[in-house]
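Morning. Coffee machine broken again, so started the prediction first thing and wrote up yesterday's gels while waiting. Chain of 425 residues, entered below exactly as on the submission form.
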Amino acid sequence: MSAQALDFPASASAPLGREPMGVSARASETESAASARVQVSAVIPCLNEERTIAACIQKARQGFETAGVVGEVVVADNGSTDRSVEIARSLGARVVHESVKGYGAALRRGMSEAQGEIIVLADADESYDWSRLCDFVHKIQNGYDLVMGNRFTGGIAPGAMPPLHRYFGNPVLSAVARIAFRVKIGDFHCGMRAVRKEAFERMLLQTDGMEFATEMVANAACQGMRITEIPTRLYPDKRGRPPHLRSFRDGWRHLRHILTYAPDHLYLAPGGLLLLAGLALQALLCVGPVRIAGFYMGIHFLALGALLTLAGFNILNLGIFAKLLMSQRYKGLQSRTVRLLRERFALEYGMIPALLLISAGLSINVMILVRWLQRPGAPMESTVHPAFVAATMVVLGLNILFSSFLVSMIRGNEKGSSAHSAARS
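Came back before lunch.
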């Protein structure tokens, strides 16, 4: 439905810089509405949406009436060069501007400026039915922090979503995100959703692009917020031009964000598996070569075991630091690893096993040196396996030792920050 087909005031087409007829009346109406406490804010990101913005605003107002709430429409303009801003203002919407380009940047601005306790988001291209915002509002009123739409259960109209997105992109990325963040959401990228204003402020959202959709769910899940979804129908957009979305660029940005904020799967799981495999090879070959089912396993497998052990430990170690960094950003982060480090970790718990490993490795090397000194010129091939194991033990012990100091430093900073915040409050 085009803007011209909708019955918004003809004055909306007045030239820029000139006050359209009816704007003063609408401004008075908006001010009087603002005097009542705004309960719901409909935030609409906008970049050259003059064909559809009017319909979205009018439907959002219908949604307020259906839900029985006092609402406001906030249009987050991202640098429109058409009549979008003019039309939005003529219909009584509040327009806020964001100079940083991107879907996420525009929504963050609009959500930050929203006055309602509940924020409903959807696109400005009429691909979602704004009049159904009441369904999202009621779910938030029932105690949820974040309510997602699900286009796959609500229905996708013919031509509304490209086959690549419908059958591959969205399902795959949503499946990866479900595993990474342990949240039962079928459609991570649905553009229509609702969130409590207080929950939005705790999410500390930062991304500027389309990955904002994933970041919102991921951050809510990390902090243990209550999340649910409802069926939402997707319609073909009516903007009459190509969408802002770029399939492969934005798909990669979603995947990159998922991996970055899922340390359990990016670091801890693979690091732990590599470490266990390396330790097993080291234990099997520490004395010398072995044959298993007719296969000879010698020094090369021992070198592989050393590689896997050290690489696995370092990846695991990075995962722990990633968890600690996330816990500083998200104060409500739900993590057994972080809880264990905060409640049980002490510097000595890392130093003792580290020093034992270093001592054991050096002792083995001393024994090899003594043997070499006692029998100079004699073959030393039989000591190669123990030497590999000893070197691995020393390096592993050094890593544990210095990592323990770093973890202790991070925990000390956390306690200092908490004490400072308590003193200021």
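The chain has 15 helices and nine strands. Going to sketch it on the whiteboard this afternoon.
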